[in-house]
Amino acid sequence: MSQDWRAQRERSNTFTLWLIRTLALHGGRRLGRFLLYPITAYYVLTAPASRRASRDYLTRILDRPPRLRDTWRHFFSFASVLLDRVFFLSGRDRGLEVEIHGADIVQSLHAAGRGAILVGAHVGSFDAARALGRARVELPLRVLMDLEHNPAITRLLHALNPDVAATSIQPGRVDTALRVQEALDAGEFVGLLADRAAEVGDSCLEVNFLGTPTPLPLNPMRLAAALHAPVILFLGMYQGGNRYVLHFERLDDDRAVPRRERSTYVQTLLQRYAASLETELRKAPYNWFNFYDFWA
Predict the structure, then answer these.
(1) 208: DSSP letter
(2) Cβ(216)–Cβ(273) under 8 Å?
(3) According to the model, what pLDDT value does residue 5 have?
(4) Is the pLDDT of residue 106 over 50?
(5) 62: which of 75, 188, 206, 282 lies 20 to 30 Å off by Cα?
(6) What is the residue-averaged pLDDT of the chain?
(7) 18 lies in a domain?
(8) Domain-located, residue 63
(9) How far is Cα 276 from Cα 294, in angstroms, rounded to an integer?
(10) Domain limits at 238?
(11) Comparing C-alpha atoms, which of 144, 125, 196, 155 is closest to residue 10?
């Protein structure tokens, strides 16, 4: 898998991000949506590498060459989800309609006092999980999040919701697995994105994804297997307008896996993850937000 995403510089400066945040919170979502049109036009015109990556993905998911309106819709969906992060994180999401599929999966685990690993992707909105409280679905959530890759956005998110910093777990550190284990033991759910390797050289496995052998990182599933944690696919799929669908799907077999079987089990989890991710993307194809050469 291409490592280009780590080398991408921030295309938005801190002032621009804070301006959008201020206008969105004080002017409302309608004003924020209006601003997305010139912002999307700017990126479609000035980001050729992202545009090529979008066309590559759209060709695979749509099974045809994408048109300009497809590229526009792809970029606009990404911008819409970024805007709505402001409202989800600040608790001002009443104007967003959220439909939940599979809520019983997390409710039953929480009722039993068990934590779980929520595996997502750079797809849709992970922050949409914060709307679960409206449906009285309990989900004590911590997120495995690299706070150093995009510092301007990180500062913005922290300003919107200080709990993001307080409940996040930094990946790649000596105590990362220990902190995840402590969260699981406390009955918390630990969210992570499993479609990109965290570090250059991380082990990957080729799985079939969108008709192509695709290397996906093994470490997220290895972590879940080592900690004997339930594994739940979570995706917050943007449906256009103000609508989201939250999808929960249990991927593990709910059994203790002997060490000698762990490698095969991890591969099985990753293959299930890729298959389910593809299924949900075919329902909402403009939710893929890896704007770099993912299949390089």
Answers:
(1) E
(2) yes
(3) 44
(4) yes
(5) 206
(6) 88
(7) no
(8) no
(9) 18
(10) 96-287
(11) 155
